[in-house]
Every structure is written in structure tokens, then in C-alpha cells.
Write a structure and sequence with these properties.
alpha+beta, Transferase(Phosphotransferase), domain 1, Serine Threonine Protein Phosphatase 5, Tetratricopeptide repeat, 6-stranded antiparallel beta sheet, 4-stranded antiparallel beta sheet, 26 helices, about 25% helix, Protein kinase, WD40_repeat_dom_sf
Length: about 1200
């Protein structure tokens, strides 16, 4: 008997009825009575509550401890959940994203309470899901529910295994901690609510009755590492309890004991229950730390195998979850730090992310957005950065460039970019769901800009101002429908909506020079909201004119002339006469054109004057500053500190000579024209409540008048959406407010698994891709050599698939057929489409979970398979040899064999040589190559082996061992052929066979190369001096593509790389750039011997050289920067394995070759698709109709591998 309640599991509502009564019934009461006890159910937060200085808003109360919140900076919803105050979530926050784990962003303290901020899933928890199914498992177990159980446990095992491998334990896991997310038709199960700190602090001694292992643990204190291991065991035990609860159909976590006896007998009818119960028993009986490692992975493999069998699926859709990177974690923490106001910490995290990966897209983009929104980059500078090559390579980067263009007023240019991306989608459907979602959002934006919200978007523009003189003032009226521009020669009135156009020009009479005053100020003008009244101040004598205007008929008639000084004295508001130092700073028609507002500076003291235009009666008041009448002071600032802060800012900017524009309606921002640098003036949008600049727009200047007295007149509309200023003889209209409809598309980017790809969708696309490749390969195998045109087209189709796969790396994962088609393409070169170089290496896998017995062990040797149908590698690590599948990254088997001096596959990948200091072993793969090999020959050798070599080419297999100046040659089953030695004062450094394995060549530490004939069992000719002196020949690589000549690429230590033609005693030095020089560890040539790869780890360089087979010159094609210790390539040069500097991690890359398609019709190549295969198959069927062609085998038949005993294996056990 065992219990399903352990640790501190949270109590859920006891029944469906209480769950449905819900939280709303408790809205008027803080407590309810449960068994006579008063239980507090008041929510920790109220609806619309704000946290983090108002950046988090509670949108919905889920229950008393859980809330859906909206983050105003991230423009996204999150889940906020109350947690114990002593909980620490750093490890959860630091965990890279994973499809089956809820992403945690932050731990927040608010009002004395602690909360976790995580991604919001859309499917509730597992208890709620089971309840929604209305099951009665005692009567019937639906087959679909059994599949759901398999799906759930597999995904939970994958997620928990990932957490454990990254040092994170849950500690309090049950089905209430399983969140469901629905992505299209896929259910994704996620582990959430990790409690690492509180679980680690729980006393283990009190839990002995709750789970088996606790009863067997030692007494006394535990180390942190031991406690962590015990909690990981507890998580596995809890997974078994969850499986049992799923099979029972439990809908809450009430505390009552359950056991296998609790299972409904209906499960006995289903064979599918056997693997589930096997897993269940293994989980709940786990009682030793040594049993933990690999347990969850074993559970996953077992259930996936039986899932495919029972439910007849060709693949498991969620086997490859989306996994984030450490750079994503740094970027996420930077964004959280920035939203919390810690810019310095955010910059540190971004620097750390860029240090890991300089071209990390999200980090680079978020950093640019931060600089743009902090006004460190202007709009133009920001878009210039987005236009760089890094962002243009990304579909999302290019799309964001279009979105930013729309947001900053370049609507037409932005729409053009977005429509171009949509058009490209029609030609080449991207498989990335992340890109598909992004393109769907682009379509929404285009719809919004062109149809639904088109009035909200502004197009930046320039118009001729039609002023002869310099524009002195720009004034937008109170409702932003009209605009006036003034100069000494005229006043122009412009209509802003529905389109910008000049509607009236009011000329100003040229004054008599004798009447002009030295102290004349700028001309000012304003129109009322309907553009029926115009007020003008000509800059002198304090006299204002008002005009009735009819702009449609181009009519303006004088209405009144107002002498300000006379009216003020008449109203007894003026003690002394105004003089020419009393400047009129601003005029504005307000109150439907009934009042003229005037701002006057008297001895720099501002006064507000309002004149009633009905009787010209004035009202005047003294102001603290000249901006006091602005709406930002009248309505926006409700606290004294904001007044003081804003005044300090304004006074500081005034001291620098800055100018201001205040919107009439929007009181949270204002616009500042900074004029410190006369050559680089810029407008800044200042956010009052955030006390920071939020936007910078560079002021365009007339290039013909640089350094001259350019006009600085400008204004903004009432909502601060549009900035209007002058540039030479033009008016510039620039958008400065991002429309609300597009704000959510310019949010910080952070990696959530659901934000990227749906693993199930990717798995389906991958399976479709594999089927197309299989069809392509099968079709090629059916074509006869005489069918040149059909074979060429089939190979071109393979080329398209290879290019498509390398551009969509998720299609390549777990795809052995892709690796096969890549080798097929290299084996059968297309004459009209030759290889001209290497574009790049594309990373398709990383082997970072290789098992090491201790921290001192390293990978000693790596051997890659090269046969067409094989895609695996052999690793030699401290007396053990491992076989790993290159496609799935799965370890297939391991066996003990000492291989300290050498290890290599040979004889078409059917045999393996392992060499120790005193022993040679030959292993043979029998029947199924996924089974461990059999030892078919072993030999105690007379020499102390320093190195061992074997030929991979030729009709006979030879093995050579060396020790100092001596060597022994073996063949067949380690039968001795002959032995020999070079000069006594020389030592052997390396051995290489020629292309046909008729000779082998020995490189020495004195720079010489000797040739030995295997048939003659003796040395032939004189040695070739690769270098004279104490310079050893470390590497000899045979170029098998050059027939009838022994041409080698040789590395001489300290003297570089050379091309050696042994027959002619010809040596050519290879020129390597000085900054790339260093010790060479690897050399590889492609089968045709046209390109050579040279690895130089000291300078992190892979040199790709073109080999001229006539002159034997190696010419550099390109250098690829890569951090590595050494590398191995397959014989077809399609895959390359890099070993890191610690020799503990391997990275698998695919070689992206560059082809010259100039001889291929581009239109034909683009239209080429799988229909050509169907046509070839139809022609083949017609050709062999009624005939049996035993020479042709289908691809599937060739790939079938029977088990060793010819019978299918079964992993099931019968419980019932």
C-alpha cells in the first residue's frame, strides 16, 4: 500500500460541484466554513490591481492564489501565482525553455507577498482536464483516453528528465502541477510550480511513511547533493503516482491512499495497460540513487515504442521538444531586469548572451529596441541597424523592419516590405511554425493598415511650404484639423485631415523699412477649430488682427483689430506701459474661437492673457513658468513631485537652448528640440511619468544651408502623434507615436517554447519530408543509366531537398534519410551543376549528454561511418566503445574494449579495429548493426603500440601498428604479413595508405616520407624530403580522387601544409593567411579531390581550399571560424564532427556546398517538384508491365533489417 499524497501538495476543491460554484460565490465574503473551521479564501490580489510600478495589471482572478496578468511592456499575458515567502526560483528561472516545462520569468515581491511570474497556458491543469472528460473507468476505458495517458506520461518524463539533467527538482509534484497547453490540435503537457527551495528544506526523516525509498535512507544529516538526488527520486516516484491517478481517473488531490488494487478491472481488457503498469511499478519501487540516472529516459523510450505499436503511428509527434539555449535565458533575464528598472543589470545579461553567441537574434533585437526606446538611436539609425545583413537573413528580422517602418510613419515602404514577405511565402512555404505565426501577424497588420484601422496610420511626407521668407512659427489648432505656418511674407493655412493640403494663403503687406522696429519678434498665427477665424500677430506693437475666413472660396475679411496694451490698461490690468522687451511668445484661438489666448514674457516673467473676442475684454494672470497653461500641468500632474521633477527637467533643457512643444490632449509626453549640436539637431519625445526620453527623431536639415540660420519652428498635434517642422523650403510631417494597433508587434522578444514551433507539427512535416526523400531515392534507383535526363532531374530534385533541409534545420533532426540523400548527391555529381565551393557549415546536432565515468575522462577517438546507408559514429572513451546514431543522437550500444592507441571503422563499416598498447582487437557487426559487435580476432602484439592504422579502401584489409622506428603489417584476421623498420635515428609519426591500398606511406619525425609496397613487402625508392631538419610529418592525407598518381596533403610541424606528388618528388607549399597560422590537427579532401579542408584549432579556423589537380596548387576558397580541438568527416564530405577543447562535447554539422547553377534554366529549377518522380514511376511501370525485375529493389526493402532471430522483439510484461 502506498499513498498519492506526499510533501506539501496543495488542496484542490473536493468535487466538481464546488469547482463549478467557483470563486464568484465568495466575492462578498472573505471566509467559508469547512468542517467547522473558518478558511480564508480572499484573493491575494484584486481585479485590476497593479504591480511593478503599474507594469503588471491583474486581468483575471483564477483562484485565490493565481491570476492572469498583462505586462504592459511585453504586451503579453502571464500567470502570476502566490508562492511561499521562503521559496527561491533562481534555478527554474535559469532553466532554458522546454516544450514540456512552463517557463518561469521572475519572482516578485508585492505588499509582503511572494509570487512567481510564468508563461500562461491555455488548458488548465490535469485534474480539470480529466474532470472535463466525464469518465467512468469502472465501466469503460475509452481507447482515446489510453492514448492520452501514454502521451501525458511520455511528455512529463521528457520534461522532468530535462529538469533533472539541469539540476532542477520539483519536490512536490502531482497532477495539479501539470499544465495543459493547446496548440492547434495538439495537447502539450507541461510541468509547472517547481518548489526547489522549500522542498530542499523539508525534513526527510518525517516522510518515511510516504514513499518507499524514504524508509531505507540513512540516518543523520544529508549533503545538498544527496538531498537533491533523493528529491529527484521522489519526482520519479511522484510520476508513477500520477500515472496511477490517470488510470484511476482521479479529479482532485484529496488525501486518501491508493494502490494497484485501486485500478478498475476494465484495464485488464487492454493490452495497452501492460507497459503502463510496468512503468508504474518501476517508478513506485525505485529505492536507490543508482537507479535514478537514465530511468526517465528509459521510461520514455519504452512508452514511445509501445505507443507506436498499439496506436499504429509511424512516429511519435512529441519526441523532439523545442529546447532553448543559455543565450535565451540571459536575454529573458535582461528583459525582466529592464522592466524592473535595472538597466545596468540588463546590459550585463545582454553582454553575457552576446558573449555566448554574438549573432543571437533575440538579444540583438531587444538591445536595439532598448536603445531606440531610450532615444539612444533615432528612427533612421534604428532602421539602418535592422537593415543590416544579420536581420535581413531572418524572415522575422525583415518583417520587423517593415513593421518599424509602418510604426514610424513610413507606411508605404513598410507595407511594401511586408507584402514582399507574403509573396515569398507563396513561392516557398516555410516549415517553421514560428515563421508561419509571424507571417499570419503580418497579414493582420496589412489588413489593419489598409482596411480596418487605416485612419490610425500616418505616412511621413514633405510638402513645399510656399513661403518666400523663413518660416517663423508653426501652430496646430486645438483639434489638430488645421495648421498655420507664418513668415514675414505670408500666413499659410493647411488642412491635416483627411489629407494634408494647403487651403489658404494670407499675404502680409511688406512694411515700410522706416517703420520697422529693431525689436520686432516673430510672426504668430492661429485658426479656430473649424478654420472660420484667423488671428495674426505681426510681431510688433502688441496689435492683433482677427479675420473671418472661408478657405473653400479663398476669402479672408478683417473682423477686428485688438490693441493689447490699450485693452489691458482699459481693464486696469497694466500698471506700466509695455515696451518692446515684453515678448509675445504664443497665441492660440480657444473656446470655439471665442477666446484668444496669449502668452507674454515680461522681463522673462510669463503672463497668461485671455481676450474675449466678443467685447475684447481681457483676463490676465501671472504664471510660475511660461508652460503653466499647458494641459500637462493642468491635468496630467496630480502630485507635487511630478511638478518639481518636470520643472527641473524644463529648466535644464532651457539652459541648453532647447525648444518645446506640448500636445493639447496627451499629457504624458512632450517634445523637445535639442539644439546643442547645430549640425545634428534632434527631436526627443519625453515621457513625463517615466522621467526619460522615449524616442529620438533626427531633424532633417537643408544640405545647401548647413551652418546657416535655419528655422527651428515646430509643433505637435493634440495627441502627440505627428510632428511638423521645417527643412529649407519644405514642411516635414513625421509620425512620433506608434499606433496602438501595432504596439503589440514591437514588443521585447523572449523565447518560450510555444512562441517557437509546435513539435507535433514539426514532426509531421519532418515525416512528410522523409517520405518525399524516400520517394526520390527509390525513383533514382529505378532509373537506368541510359536515362540521363531523368537521372539529372532526379538529382536536381535531391539538390533542392538538401538546400531546403539545410535552410529548415528542424526537418533534418532525427532524419537519417536526409543524411543519406546528401551523400547520394555527392556520389553522383551533376555535370551541369558543379560544386564551386563551401557556403557554410550548418549545425544539425550536438552530443552533450555523452556518458563519462568521471570528470577526468575524455573522448579519445571518433570514427564516422561512411557507407551510404549508415549514419552513426563510434566513440572510444576510457576502455569503453560507444555507438551513437547521428540522426537521433541516441546511444545504440556500448561494449568494453581498450582503444587507447587507435580505433577505426573499416570494410564498409562492418568491422572495427581497437588498439591498446599490447593488444589488437577486431570486432565485426553481425546481422543487425544496431546490436553490439562480436569479437572475431584478437592478438597480443610483440611491439608496444604507439599508433594503429587500417585501410578503409581496397580489396584487402590491412592493419599496421608502429612503435618508434618499427612497424608490423597484418591482414585478414590479424595474420602477420611482414614487419620492418626505418632508419634507427628516425621515429614514425604517421602512416597513410594510397587509394588502392597497394602501398602505404610512412611519415617520420625528420620530415621524410617513405613508400612501402605491400605486395613486395619492402620499401620502394628513395624517401621524399617533405622538410629538411627536425620537423616531423604529422599528417599524410591521400587524395583518392586523383587516379594513377600518389598525391598527398601533408602537414609538417612548424613548416605548414604541403602538397606532395610522391611519384615525381614534387612538393608545393600551401599559403595560409598569417592570422590563421597554427598547428594543424585535421586534413580531409572530398572524393573528387577538388576541395581540401584544413583544421587549425589555435586560430579557430577551418580553411577550405581548391586543389588545382594540374599545378597541385591549393588556393583558399574561404575560412570558416569555428571553435574546436579536432574534427572528423565522412568520406563523402557531407558531415563534419567537431570535438571541443575539453574533448567532452561533439557538435555535428552538415557541409553546405555551393553549386554553380548558371547552366540550369532558373525557371525550370524553381518549378521542379515531386511530380517528376510520379511521371518517372509511371513510365517505369509501363516499361516493366507484366514483367518481373528482380534486380530492382524498393528503398524500403533495402532498408529493412530483421532482428537477429528473425522474430519481432517484445518489451511487454503481463501484469493481469
Amino acid at each position: 500500500m502506498f499513498t498519492s499524497t506526499y510533501g506539501n501538495s496543495k488542496d484542490h476543491k473536493n468535487s466538481a460541484q464546488k469547482r463549478k460554484q467557483g470563486f464568484d460565490r465568495l466575492s462578498n465574503s472573505d471566509q467559508i466554513s469547512v468542517n467547522g473551521l473558518e478558511v480564508n479564501v480572499r484573493p491575494l490580489l484584486e481585479q485590476n490591481a497593479r504591480l511593478l510600478n503599474g507594469k503588471l495589471i491583474v486581468r483575471r482572478v483564477v483562484n485565490e492564489r493565481s491570476f492572469i496578468v498583462f505586462h504592459e511592456e511585453f504586451k503579453d499575458e502571464f500567470l502570476l501565482k502566490g508562492i511561499p515567502h521562503e521559496e527561491q526560483l533562481e534555478r527554474w528561472i535559469d532553466l532554458p525553455t522546454h516544450t514540456n516545462i512552463v517557463t518561469c520569468f521572475d519572482q516578485i515581491s508585492h505588499d509582503g507577498k511572494m509570487f512567481s511570474l510564468t508563461e500562461s497556458t491555455n488548458g488548465g491543469d490535469m485534474f480539470q482536464y480529466i474532470e472535463s472528460l466525464n469518465l467512468n473507468l469502472a465501466i469503460n476505458v475509452p481507447h482515446q483516453y489510453i492514448e492520452t495517458i501514454y502521451d501525458c506520461i511520455i511528455q512529463l518524463a521528457i520534461g522532468m528528465d530535462y529538469a533533472h539533467n539541469n539540476g532542477l527538482v520539483h519536490g512536490q509534484f502531482d497532477l495539479s502541477n501539470v499544465a495543459l497547453a493547446k496548440d492547434q490540435d495538439t495537447l502539450i503537457f507541461k510541468v509547472t510550480d517547481f518548489r526547489p527551495a522549500t522542498s530542499m528544506s523539508l525534513p526527510l526523516t518525517s516522510e518515511g511513511s510516504l514513499w518507499p525509498f524514504a524508509r531505507q535512507k540513512k540516518k543523520g544529516n544529508f549533503t545538498e547533493k544527496e538531498k537533491l538526488e533523493i528529491l529527484m527520486l521522489k519526482d520519479i516516484y511522484a510520476l508513477g503516482i500520477c500515472l496511477l491517478e490517470l488510470m484511476i481517473g482521479r479529479i482532485c488531490s484529496n488525501r486518501f491512499s491508493i494502490s494497484l488494487d485501486s485500478l478498475p478491472l476494465t484495464w485488464a481488457e487492454f493490452a495497452e495497460s501492460t507497459p503502463l503498469i510496468q512503468v508504474l511499478v518501476e517508478c513506485i519501487n525505485i529505492d536507490n540513487i543508482t537507479q535514478r540516472k537514465g530511468k526517465l529516459s528509459t521510461i520514455k523510450k519504452l512508452l514511445i515504442k509501445d505507443y507506436l505499436k498499439f496506436f499504429q503511428r509511424p512516429f511519435y509527434k512529441m519526441e523532439l521538444p523545442v529546447v532553448g539555449k543559455r543565450t535565451d535565458v540571459c536575454n529573458k533575464k535582461a528583459m525582466i531586469a529592464l522592466s524592473n528598472g535595472n538597466e545596468e543589470l540588463a546590459l550585463q545579461y545582454w553582454e553575457e548572451a552576446i558573449g555566448m553567441k554574438e549573432a543571437h537574434f533575440d538579444t540583438q533585437l531587444n538591445f536595439l529596441i532598448y536603445k531606440w526606446r531610450a532615444a539612444q538611436l533615432s528612427d533612421d539609425e534604428f532602421m539602418a541597424e535592422l537593415s543590416k545583413e544579420f536581420f535581413q537573413e531572418k524572415d522575422i528580422g525583415k518583417g520587423l523592419l517593415g513593421i518599424i517602418n509602418i510604426a514610424t510613419g513610413e507606411k508605404e515602404k513598410g507595407l511594401q516590405i511586408l507584402e514582399q514577405i507574403i509573396e515569398e511565402e507563396k513561392k516557398d512555404l516555410s516549415i517553421s511554425l514560428k515563421q508561419q505565426r509571424f507571417r499570419a501577424s503580418l497579414k493582420e497588420i496589412i489588413q489593419s493598415v489598409t482596411v480596418t484601422d487605416k485612419d490610425s496610420y500616418f505616412q511621413n511626407c514633405k510638402l513645399k511650404s510656399e513661403h518666400q521668407e523663413k518660416i517663423e512659427s508653426i501652430s496646430i489648432n486645438v483639434n489638430s484639423r488645421f495648421l498655420t505656418t507664418t513668415s514675414k511674407d505670408c500666413v499659410n493655412i493647411w488642412q491635416l485631415r483627411p489629407q494634408i493640403q494647403k487651403v489658404l494663403t494670407f499675404p502680409l503687406e511688406e512694411e515700410d523699412p522706416a517703420s520697422q522696429t529693431k525689436f520686432a519678434t516673430k510672426v504668430l498665427a492661429s485658426v479656430d477649430q473649424d478654420c472660420k477665424l484667423l488671428a495674426i500677430y505681426k510681431g510688433k506693437n502688441f496689435v492683433f488682427q482677427t479675420y473671418n475666413i472661408d478657405y473653400k472660396n479663398q476669402i479672408a475679411t478683417l473682423k477686428d483689430t485688438i490693441d493689447l496694451q490699450k485693452e489691458l490698461m482699459r481693464a486696469q490690468l497694466l500698471d506700466t506701459k509695455l515696451d518692446e522687451f515684453d515678448v509675445i511668445a504664443e497665441i492660440k484661438l480657444i473656446n470655439d474661437g471665442k477666446t484668444l489666448k496669449i502668452v507674454q514674457l515680461r522681463k522673462k516673467q510669463p503672463y497668461m492673457i485671455e481676450i474675449n473676442l466678443f467685447d475684447c475684454s481681457p483676463q490676465m494672470r501671472k504664471q510660475e513658468n511660461k508652460f503653466e497653461d499647458k494641459s500637462i500641468f493642468r491635468y496630467g500632474l496630480t502630485y507635487v513631485q511630478y511638478h518639481e521633477s518636470l520643472n527641473v527637467f524644463l529648466n535644464y533643457q532651457l539652459s541648453k537652448g532647447s525648444l518645446f512643444a506640448f500636445p493639447e490632449k496627451e499629457f504624458q509626453v512632450l517634445v523637445v528640440l535639442n539644439r546643442e549640436d547645430k549640425q545634428n539637431k534632434a527631436f526627443y519625445v519625453y515621457e513625463v511619468f517615466n522621467e526619460r526620453f522615449g524616442r529620438r527623431v533626427k531633424k532633417l536639415e537643408n544640405p545647401l544651408k548647413l551652418g546657416q540660420d535655419e528655422s527651428d519652428a515646430f509643433d505637435v498635434d493634440l495627441e502627440c502623434k505627428t510632428l511638423i517642422y521645417t527643412c529649407g523650403d519644405e514642411l516635414v510631417f513625421h509620425s512620433i507615436k506608434i499606433p496602438d494597433q501595432i504596439q503589440r508587434y514591437i514588443r521585447p522578444r523572449f523565447n518560450q517554447a510555444l512562441h517557437k514551433d509546435n513539435p507535433a507539427k514539426i514532426a509531421q512535416l519532418r515525416q512528410d519530408f522523409i517520405e518525399k526523400i524516400n520517394k526520390n531515392l527509390k525513383n533514382f534507383s529505378l532509373l537506368l543509366p541510359a536515362q540521363e535526363q531523368e537521372r539529372r532531374n532526379c538529382l536536381l530534385l535531391m539538390l533542392k531537398k538538401v538546400e531546403y533541409g539545410l535552410n529548415n534545420k528542424r526537418l533534418v533532426a532525427c532524419n537519417p534519410q536526409f543524411l543519406r540523400i546528401h551523400k547520394m548527391l555527392m556520389q553522383h555529381q551533376i555535370k551541369e551543376c558543379p560544386i564551386v565551393g563551401v557556403k557554410d557549415f550548418v549545425k544539425i546536432g550536438i552530443f552533450d549528454e555523452i556518458k563519462f565515468t568521471n570528470d577526468l575522462h575524455r573522448i579519445k577517438f571518433v570514427s564516422l561511418s561512411s557507407e551510404m546507408e549508415n549514419n552513426y559514429m563510434m566513440l572510444a572513451i576510457d576502455g569503453t566503445i560507444y555507438k551513437y546514431d547521428l540522426a537521433t543522437k541516441e546511444m545504440l550500444f556500448s561494449f568494453k574494449s581498450q582503444a587507447y592507441q587507435g580505433m577505426m571503422l573499416f570494410d564498409e563499416d562492418t568491422k572495427l579495429m581497437a588498439a591498446d598498447t599490447q593488444q589488437l582487437k577486431l570486432w565485426e557487426f553481425i546481422h543487425n548493426k544496431d546490436d553490439a559487435p562480436e569479437l572475431y580476432s584478437v592478438l597480443q602484439v610483440p611491439l608496444r603500440v604507439e599508433q594503429a592504422f587500417v585501410n578503409r579502401r581496397g580489396d584487402v584489409n590491412y592493419q599496421i601498428i608502429t612503435c618508434k622506428d618499427s612497424f608490423i603489417v597484418y591482414h585478414s584476421k590479424l595474420d602477420k604479413l611482414f614487419d620492418g623498420s626505418i632508419m634507427a635515428y628516425e621515429n614514425i609519426r604517421t602512416v597513410e595508405f594510397n587509394a588502392n591500398a597497394t602501398h602505404f606511406f610512412v611519415g617520420t619525425d625528420k620530415g621524410r616520407i617513405y613508400r612501402y609496397s605491400i605486395d613486395q613487402k619492402a620499401k620502394e625508392g628513395e624517401a621524399v624530403e617533405a622538410e629538411i631538419g627536425q620537423f616531423g610529418v604529422d599528417i599524410i592525407h591521400c587524395t583518392i580522387g586523383i587516379k594513377d598518381r600518389d598525391v598527398f596533403i601533408v602537414y609538417v610541424q612548424g613548416k605548414g601544409v604541403k602538397v606532395v606528388e610522391y611519384n615525381e618528388n614534387r612538393i608545393e607549399q600551401v599559403e595560409i593567411d598569417k592570422e590563421r597560422l597554427g598547428q594543424v590537427t585535421s586534413i580531409k579532401a572530398n572524393p573528387e579531390a577538388t576541395f581540401v579542408f584544413i583544421g587549425i584549432p589555435e586560430t579557430s579556423s577551418i580553411g577550405v581550399f581548391y586543389l588545382d589537380r594540374i599545378t597541385l596548387q591549393l588556393k583558399i576558397q574561404k575560412y570558416i571560424t569555428m571553435s574546436f580541438q579536432t574534427f572528423e568527416m565522412d568520406d563523402y564530405c557531407t558531415k563534419i564532427i567537431f570535438m571541443n577543447h575539453k574533448c567532452r562535447v561533439l557538435e555535428l554539422y552538415s557541409v553546405k556546398w555551393e553549386y554553380d547553377r548558371s547552366s540550369i534554366d532558373e525557371a525550370f529549377y524553381n518549378k521542379l517538384d515531386d511530380t517528376i518522380i510520379d511521371e518517372n514511376d509511371l513510365n517505369y511501370q509501363r516499361q516493366f508491365k507484366g514483367k518481373i525485375d528482380p534486380t530492382q529493389k524498393t528503398l524500403n526493402e533495402m532498408d529493412k533489417k530483421p532482428a537477429a532471430n528473425g522474430k519481432p522483439k517484445s518489451s511487454s510484461c503481463n501484469i493481469f
